[in-house]
Specification:
- With about 350 residues, the chain is α/β, with parallel strands linked by helices.
- The protein has 17 helices and 13 strands.
- Helix 1 crosses helix 17 and helix 4 runs parallel beside helix 5.
- The longest helix has 19 residues.
- It is globular and about 55 Å long.
- The protein starts with a strand and ends with a helix.
- The structure holds uridine-diphosphate-N-acetylglucosamine (UD1).
- The site of uridine-diphosphate-N-acetylglucosamine has 19 residues, from helix 1, helix 5 and helix 11.
């Protein structure tokens, strides 16, 4: 059985790593790894392959950055001949980036079965590019692997046939559990002289960083927090470009305790999160990782497609209102909330379950 596996952007790499490893237990499956090249910088891509032991991609489509339409179209044009030549039995896509829907669409149009890992997540916000990618990918998929029970409920409510839906757990957590002890050896805390409390921050959602008014509001809140403790901010290229293009860049430069770093590797970031007093983020995956690391997460978005993280008590979704952010921050610092529970099946075995099902059912 031949399966083409697709990755494109940074969060895809953590998801594909345990799946590629799990194929090792199933010699009847011949996996091919295709990188679309949506992310291409050393620090956004190659570093993750090395740290996570992902095999070199068999093919790199090298599409790079562009508008949504151009990027999606370029991926489709480049991926179609790969599917035609390799003649796979299935194409497996992960997550919700443009590479996910682009390659999914190519596969089904060529009559190849589509497997979606991390299916069913819904923020309810169609202004979010990822939400469109999720809905479309799920609609055309033949195998939908979900990470949390809301995923299954959403798919059934949308009319997806129950026989296609499998609740298997979370491959991103497989990767976290596999790499936790390695990350403990990271020296990042010494490098940045972090001995006491600090917060870790990430921001890259277009709705937060492309609009200077919203970004300015977030900085208002961050300015207050950085008076209490350092905020360590590994900055996404999209966010850096936007800061540099506006007066907000100068404001950030004046905040002595808001410390910008270039994007950092997986192991350093895991260490940075796990030792933080709290994490502030607009990322999806980080809401999940902090849940397992038992570090309080304040989500700087109006909604989440990962409601289980709120349900188990590790995540607070606050939006971008300054007062709401500061209230959540103060509650977190007062120790409210207690120890979060672990979501069902977030046990390091999700990829094994997925590959076993594929080996039996494709
Ligand atoms: C993409 C995903 C998003 C995911 C995020 C993680 C979509 C629609 N969005 O958003 O879901 O959470 O990746 O990072 O697929 N750039 C670089 N170097 C790189 C890659 C990008 O400098 O290696 C810059 C380019 O200027 C580019 C911008 O970042 O225009 C945005 O990259 P893009 O892949 O379009 O979207 P992300 O914001 O990274």
């Amino acid at each position: 059985m031949r399966i083409i596996n697709v990755v494109g952007a940074r969060p895809n790499f953590m998801k594909i790593a345990p799946i590629m490893a799990a194929y090792g237990d199933h010699p009847s499956i011949e996996p091919l790894l295709v990188h679309t090249g949506q992310h291409y910088d050393e620090k956004m891509s190659d570093l993750f392959f090395r740290q996570l032991g992902i095999p070199e991609p068999d093919i790199n489509l090298e599409v790079g950055s562009a508008t949504h339409a151009v990027q999606t179209a370029e991926i489709m044009k480049a991926f179609e001949p790969v599917v035609t030549d390799y003649k796979p039995d299935a194409v497996l896509v992960v997550g919700d980036v443009n590479s996910t829907i682009a390659c999914g669409l190519v596969a089904v149009k060529l009559g190849v079965k589509l497997v979606h890992v991390e299916a069913g997540l819904r923020s309810g916000d169609r202004g979010m590019p990822e939400e469109i990618n999720r809905i479309l990918t799920d609609t055309i998929s033949d195998f939908l692997f979900v990470t949390e029970k809301s995923g299954r409920e959403n798919l059934l409510a949308e009319g997806v046939d129950e026989s296609k839906v499998f609740f298997v757990g979370n491959v991103m957590i497989d990767t976290l559990l596999r790499n936790k002890s390695k990350s403990d050896e990271s020296t990042i805390l010494d490098e940045f002289d972090l001995s006491g409390d600090y917060a870790a921050l990430t921001l890259h959602r277009p709705s937060n960083v492309d609009d200077p008014v919203v970004l300015g509001r977030l900085l208002d809140a961050l300015e207050v927090i950085q008076n209490d403790m350092p905020i360590i901010f590994p900055i996404h290229p999209r966010t850096r470009k936007n800061l540099e293009a506006s007066v907000l860049g100068e404001r950030v430069a004046k905040m002595a305790n808001l410390r910008l770093l270039d994007p950092i590797g997986y192991l350093d970031f895991l260490k940075l999160m796990s030792s933080a007093r709290l994490v502030l983020t607009d990322s999806g995956g980080i809401q999940e990782e902090t849940t397992i690391l038992k570090v309080p997460c304040i989500t700087l978005r109006e909604n989440t497609e990962r409601p289980i993280t709120v349900e188990v008590g590790s995540n607070t979704v606050v939006g971008t209102d300054v007062q709401k952010i500061l209230t959540a921050y103060r509650e977190t610092m007062s120790g409210a909330g207690g120890e979060p529970r672990t979501p069902e099946f977030w046990d390091g075995q999700a990829a094994r379950r997925i590959v076993k099902i594929l080996s039996e059912k494709v």
